[in-house]
Amino acid sequence: MLTLPRERLMCPELINPAPPYHGAVTSTVTQQAASAQPPVARTYQVRTYGCQMNVHDSERLSGLLEAAGYRRAAEGADADVVVFNTCAVRENADNKLYGNLSHLAPRKQSDPQMQIAVGGCLAQKDRDAVLRRAPWVDVVFGTHNIGALPTLLERARHNRSAQVEIAEALQEFPSTLPAARESAYAGWVSISVGCNNTCTFCIVPALRGKEVDRRPGDILGEIQTLVDQGVLEVTLLGQNVNAYGVSFAADERLREDPAMWSEMPRDRGAFAKLLRACGRIDGLERVRFTSPHPAEFTDDVIEAMADTPNVCPALHMPLQSGSDRILRAMRRSYRAEKYLAIIDRVRAAIPDAAITTDLIVGFPGETEEDFQATLDVVAASRFSSAFTFQYSKRPGTPAAEMPGQVPKAVVSERYQRLIELQEKISLDENLAQVGRTVELLVATGEGRKDAATARMSGRARDGRLVHFGPGAADEPLARRAFDHVRPGDIVTATVTGAAPHHLIADGALLGHRRTRAGDAHAEGRRPRTGVGLGIPGIGAPDPVPATSGCAR
Ligand code: SF4
């Protein structure tokens, strides 16, 4: 760990004495707390960049801070602690981070008690360089030690010196940390962290380390905890979910000896077994997962998906390129033919499956012929939607050093052609849904509930976004039923229209089921998971307030 003297920092106020501290790191400060005013909980805000992993990590950061006595800052209010959970994958991620940190510098100057922490992939990559570029930052922590955040904040405050702690390997499976979930009805559940692949465009293995799998009992226990609190849907999360079983770790053994990971025998059927076990959890209505790797996709997973009623008919499987030559250069070990064969088998077993993907255009060395091969596979795959990326150099990745970088203008032109093709396919596939009955888990934050349409939104079982309306103006009963629908409830509706990125269901609802998730959402209750032992606290914890992929 690196500790920089506070005197190095820009703000002269920072050498002023710290106010009384109400935690339990040292006996001295605990004594101060005994004679101080009743503790006022400090507020926090977590700003998240990047993929679902980071979104879920931010839930853990929130849970850790709340377990330590911090309170979530009200919307639009200045927080006492601002945490940046960063991403190193996106283009210009570092410029954006340092720009945002600069915006906070004047505030830090005027309020030295305010603290700024930087974690996540960019912190893991830049380490103490974060403090060289933004010396007003208080804490820098890595992807392997997010559980240290409350301790580091307290240490920075107590010692009046910036704290940098970057662990080289996972110290504790992050799911054992407390998490304050964002959604009352859907939850992320990590099944693994890290990745054993070495895709040449990806920085993830360098920053998140080798794959470590969580034991099935721990995963199922966390799902049960979520379901007990009303959650209806879980998404199993990993960089490469169908490699699950490659290196199970018992948390205690992991802490003692990370080398134990590789000594556990691989269980190749572990992911399919996990899906089937999810099917036996009462009250769990929807199971999703992201993302599988085509190279490791096995038929037992397809069978488990087809046989397990609560596993949703949806598959997100990154293709990246349809050219075998480019896949080889990307170090992705499947080929276009294998990819298409998997899709055929999925559609044979689950005819209504919505299949989505990730695509990169303009990888180094990509010729017009290679690009045409991508268009061909996209046309044959008939994805319901695709996340499309223009290749750009990511420092620290092998591809950034490869010859044959494709000029930006060429990348943009190919990208436009790919978008046009995929939009047409998405629209055709969505038009084929018109007239069907869909079951929707009503969502918040994805809606178009505006004055003009009064629509709400939900996700169909296959993952499609559906905006549904209150029915015709001359159907007062239907409109009244619509008024009682809440995020977290289940409705059924008939699809009446389609666009490339969503469906419309503007008729009267066919059904509405009030759920415990809907109750929880309406009451502002958010699920909590994990345990928080030994976290230094400030004051008493308050009640919980109401509130694309990895590098592929
Ligand atoms: S793109 Fe995904 S599978 Fe490939 S190295 Fe990165 S995290 Fe692993």
From TrEMBL:
GO MF terms held by the record: 4 iron, 4 sulfur cluster binding; metal ion binding; tRNA-2-methylthio-N(6)-dimethylallyladenosine(37) synthase activity
MTTase N-terminal domain ranges (all copies): 42-158
SUPFAM superfamilies attached to this UniProt entry: Radical SAM enzymes
Known partners and oligomeric status: Monomer.
Intracellular or extracellular location(s): Cytoplasm
Stated role: Catalyzes the methylthiolation of N6-(dimethylallyl)adenosine (i(6)A), leading to the formation of 2-methylthio-N6-(dimethylallyl)adenosine (ms(2)i(6)A) at position 37 in tRNAs that read codons beginning with uridine.
One Pfam family from the record: UPF0004
EC number: 2.8.4.3
Region annotation Disordered: where it falls in the sequence: 518-552
Alphabetical keyword list: 4Fe-4S, Cytoplasm, Iron, Iron-sulfur, Metal-binding, S-adenosyl-L-methionine, Transferase, tRNA processing
TRAM domain residues: 431-509
Protein family according to the UniProt entry: Belongs to the methylthiotransferase family. MiaB subfamily.
Annotated Gene Ontology cellular component terms: cytosol
InterPro entries with a match to the protein in the record: Elp3/MiaA/NifB-like_rSAM, Methylthiotransferase, Methylthiotransferase_CS, Methylthiotransferase_N, Methylthiotransferase_N_sf, MiaB_methiolase, rSAM, rSAM_horseshoe
Annotated cofactor note: Binds 2 [4Fe-4S] clusters. One cluster is coordinated with 3 cysteines and an exchangeable S-adenosyl-L-methionine.
Cofactor(s) of this protein: [4Fe-4S] cluster
Domain Radical SAM core: 181-428
GTP-binding recorded as keyword: no
Stretches assigned to coiled coil: none
Lineage: superkingdom: Bacteria
Record protein name field: tRNA-2-methylthio-N(6)-dimethylallyladenosine synthase
